[in-house]
Amino acid sequence: MSIVSSYASPDAAEALKRQRRMASIASLAIAILTVVLVAVVLALFLLPALRMQSSDIVAYSAEMEEEEVVEQPEITPQVRRQPSAPSSAMAKVIATTVPSPISVPVPDTETPDPSIDFGDGDDFGDGWGEGSGSGLGGGTSFFGVTSRAERIAYVIDYSASMRGPPKEDPSRADLMRKELKRSVDRIAAKTNYALIFFAGPAWVAGDEVDWTKQKATITGKGRRKYEWKSGGKAHEWEQVGKKEPVEWLSATEGQLSKSRKIIEKTPLVWGTRWDNPLQMALDMEPRPQVIYFMTDGVARGSDKWAKEIGARAKSRGIKINCVAMMQPKAHDDMDDLAKRTGGHFTIVMKGGQRKKVR
Q: In this structure, are 124 and 38 located in the same domain?
């Protein structure tokens, strides 16, 4: 209930009422706006706290090694599989999946004939293996020992003692020439080979040899001359001056035919010293992988030669297959040389029969 002064005129009283009404409306509006403003302010502070926060997910992964793709060989269904090895043998196998940065070399292998009995084959030759000697990396065989290699050197005894006793038939030289020609015939096309002959001096097959018991002159490729001397004994031959280099020959039909003629026509020379020709073979570049070494002689100092040459050949990864031609006194040193280099040792008996010792 409003109180109006009794002293106010009616117009003044009416104006005062209007002012009070307007003031009330203004106060109400201000109150409402204040409430709204407070609500807005509270909303600004409270709503961010109520809002769901989604954190970024960060993942870490170790660096992955690049997987090496190994091509698997195709399996031919027609190939008959071999039976599995017994469990005792399988237990010895150690497998690993760890990659290695080092490649494993595949060694040259030599396959001897399975039998070690005397008289393997009919006399000298028949039943000893035929064909071209082809295989991985080429190869050939000599006195029953097969080699798979790309570079093969022959070191062959052409000393006068290879004639043998008068009643020896066939002679040592006949057996040697026959088997050496057969071995050359079996050289695979991919194989390089070398022929080194020796007695007291040593020379490359095809050289001219002018000799006496005190000295020898070898006339080699390009008419170059190489000198040798001796103190008068069969085992005292030494080279004088520069050494003769040995070159590799390619297994072409023309070169093989030429080698067969040289093997047949080269005469025998006096003296026996086999360390010098083996050193000539070891000096070749590139080095031989296999050496076939044959002699019928034993020489003073051959035990020392076997140790020295064996150590050098082993350090260069060269195998020496030794063949003793009807000379029992040479067996121990040649067996030692073959053993030191991982090669084979074969004894050729009278009539061409042979025994594989190693």
A: no
